[in-house]
Design a protein that fits this description.
It contains 25 helices and no strands. It has helices at about 5-15, 15-40, 45-55, 55-60, 75-80, 80-100, 100-105, 110-115, 120-150, 155-180, 185-210, 220-225, 235-255, 280-310, 315-320, 325-330, 340-370, 370-375, 380-385, 390-420, 430-440, 440-455, 465-480, 485-490, 505-530. It has about 525 residues and is mainly α.
Length: about 525
């Protein structure tokens, strides 16, 4: 354990901005969601919302649903937000643990660190303590935000700390995976697979029996939801989280003591002595590197949109209950009235289209910035030493990012259609769902091209691409609610798309977005040819 404190301080300094952005993001999510629930002052509106939450589709997407008989704002935030905040914090915990353990060993930096007076388990313990600090800061800030809006302070902090404790279970899972797998991608993938299995077990168990069946209790997600905050607070389910964390830590220590440094317990399959002819270029290499991430993104988001599609037929009943509420009218862009049933569903589909496009944008930015990771590890420099031009090298990940983004977007729209059809709702044709997916492609190309241009010209500023992803979502959802000025809306590529579900799409704007994407791509290639590789 020697050197644990020093390593923890170094990790905190290295990730101070990550801590800040995660904290602000989760706190904003609580504030926005709770602000919406506080506006449900009409008993009929609350009853309609609770009725929607009691449907099997929504139980699988949110949770067992406590307090639906008297649906207070506290019960609403616990039922509708806790699951998604828990998933976000679990992803954060997994990525942070892998980043500071297995990824450090893979890069060779950990070996240099351990050449000093550093114990065998110090890096792993410091990484888990970092995740503890991050989740604690998020829990404190979020709890204060919830309590500041008038909810009971004890219940508010109980909710946020229970969510943080559940995320730590997945962080401990990642620590075990880091001992088993030799590469960071394998450790992160296995941990995320455990998270997905936990979500699926909880969903199936909650649908099978009201307020959770024995199958639900296999999942750590259910342990957090079974605290029943703002309804009937009980602490004992969190004991299961503590026991799981301690057991996983002991298992990680046991496995870590029985493997070589930089090696995993699962043997890596030996590859061919020579690469296949199809792999003699940057494009096939980028495909091999990114095909796994694309597959799991399509499957993960596809399941989410499939479940979302199953509630489409329930939309009119839910929206009828909030008709006339000025905040909901602003969110839905329906100041003139929601209209008939089909109009309501089309309005709701427009929101889902924005969600699908935001997920595809996040994948696209992550995929194109994979080129930055290749550069930081030194592999780009080695590749450019061969007869490979810079333009050809950059074109590989860019092409995969653009095609992968389109795939995520279109399959998301198809999954939404399948979910709706599975419940018997077939009023809208498949072509309309496809149009909902296709019209966003030029705007998505702009975001991918922007990330590429930032990487090519100012690698240190690539975080702006992620900021833009968040910005376009906020503008798309809350521009009318916050009465944002016209100039701020025009910054978002999504704003120029219009409302595809309502038929408000101008082809000239889509061509304009495509032109902007081409210009940014040309700038990316020009910048990458000019600057040093790597940029330190």
């Amino acid at each position: 354990m020697t050197g644990t404190g020093t390593l923890l301080r170094f990790m905190l300094r290295r990730d101070r901005m990550r801590i800040l952005w995660w904290t602000l993001g989760i706190a904003a999510l609580y504030a926005g969601g709770l602000g919406e629930y506080l506006l449900l002052d009409d008993p009929e509106a609350r009853a309609a919302r609770s009725l929607l939450l009691s449907s099997p589709a929504m139980v699988s997407m949110s949770g067992p649903g406590y307090g639906l008989d008297d649906y207070t704002p506290g019960a609403a935030v616990a039922n509708e937000l806790v699951l998604w905040v828990l998933l976000a914090l679990s992803v954060m915990s997994i990525l942070q643990v892998v980043r500071h353990t297995r990824a450090e060993e893979e890069s060779g930096r950990s070996e240099l660190v351990r050449a000093g007076a550093v114990g065998r388990h110090a890096p792993s313990v410091a990484a888990l303590l970092l995740v503890v600090v991050m989740n604690t800061v998020v829990a404190l800030t979020s709890g204060a935000v919830v309590a500041a809006q008038g909810l009971d302070a004890a219940q508010s902090f109980a909710m946020t700390f229970a969510t943080a404790l559940g995320a730590l279970v997945l962080g401990a899972v990642a620590l075990v995976a880091a001992q088993v797998y030799e590469h960071g991608r394998g450790a992160a993938g296995a941990s995320l697979a455990v998270l997905g299995a936990a979500f699926l077990l909880r969903a199936v168990g909650d649908v099978r029996e009201r307020h959770g069946s024995p199958l639900s209790w296999v999942s750590p997600i259910a342990w957090v939801q079974q605290t029943r905050v703002f309804v009937d607070l009980r602490w004992w389910p969190l004991v299961l989280c503590v026991v799981a964390i301690v057991g996983l830590l002991a298992l990680a220590a046991f496995l870590g003591s029985r493997r070589d440094h930089a090696a995993g317990l699962v043997a890596v399959r030996p590859g061919r002595a020579d690469a296949r002819p199809a792999l003699t270029g940057p494009l096939p290499l980028a495909w091999v590197q990114q095909r796994g991430a694309l597959l799991w993104t399509v499957l993960g988001l596809g399941v989410l949109w499939l479940g979302s599609g199953t509630i489409i037929r329930e939309v009119p009943r839910a929206l009828d209950a909030v008709a006339g509420n000025p905040v909901y009218d602003a969110l839905l862009g329906s100041e003139g009235g929601l209209g008939g049933e089909e109009q309501m569903i089309r309005t709701f589909l427009g929101i889902f289209g924005l969600y699908i496009a935001a997920g595809a944008a996040a994948y696209g930015v992550a995929a194109v910035l994979r080129a930055k990771g290749e550069e930081e590890t030194g592999r780009t420099e080695l590749a450019l030493a061969a007869p490979v031009s810079r333009g050809r090298w950059l074109a590989g990940p860019l092409t995969i990012a653009l095609l992968g983004t389109a795939t995520v977007q279109v399959t998301g729209a198809l999954a939404l259609w399948l979910g709706a059809v599975s419940t018997g709702y077939d009023e809208l044709a498949l072509g309309e769902y496809l149009e909902l997916g296709l019209v966003y492609l030029p705007a998505l190309a702009v975001l991918v091209a922007l990330a590429a241009a930032l990487h090519a010209w100012v690698p240190r500023a690539t975080g702006l691409a992620w900021a833009m992803v968040g910005y376009v979502f906020v503008v798309g959802m809350f521009a009318d609610l916050f009465d944002l000025p016209a100039w701020s809306r025009r910054i978002s590529p999504f704003w120029w798309v219009g409302s595809p579900a309502l038929g408000d799409v101008e082809p000239a704007r889509l061509w304009g977005l495509a032109g902007v994407a081409v210009v940014l791509l040309l700038l990316a290639f020009a910048g990458f040819r000019r600057r040093d590789v790597p940029t330190l």
